[in-house]
Write a structure and sequence with these properties.
Blueprint: E1 3-6, E2 9-12, E3 17-23, E4 32-38, E5 45-50, E6 56-58, E7 66-71, E8 76-81, E9 90-98, E10 102-103, E11 107-112
Length: about 110
């Protein structure tokens, strides 16, 4: 199983980016998916999660600015990030919570002030 994340980059504060994560295999529709991030010198932290029903959960730090979504036909989960702040700078990781735990490779997001 592979979780292939993309879409990171360098953006100015206040800007937007959209991350994508394509998941291989045939159980995407059964999967609870999400995103984590890890800033330099810090522990990896939860960002957002989307259930098979489409129900979403967010970290307080990104509520109102980030939106997680999924396209089951494309086996892809997205993270739309708006109003980015320098403190959002991190490596962002795609994650499957269930039915199997998997991590994708990270994609770097850098927000300049």
């Amino acid at each position: 199983v592979q979780l292939q994340a993309s879409g990171g980059g360098l953006v100015q504060a206040g800007g937007s980016l959209r991350l994508s994560c394509v998941v291989s295999g045939n159980i995407f529709t059964l999967s609870i998916m999400g995103w984590y991030r890890q800033a330099p010198g810090k522990q990896r932290e939860f960002v957002a999660r989307i259930a098979t029903s489409g129900t979403t959960t967010y970290a307080d730090s990104v509520k109102g600015r980030f939106t997680i979504s999924r396209d089951n036909a494309k086996s892809t989960v997205y993270l739309q990030m708006n109003s980015l702040k320098p403190e959002d700078t991190a490596v962002y990781y795609c994650h499957r919570f269930s039915p199997y735990v998997n991590w994708g490779q990270g994609t770097q997001v850098t927000v300049s002030s």
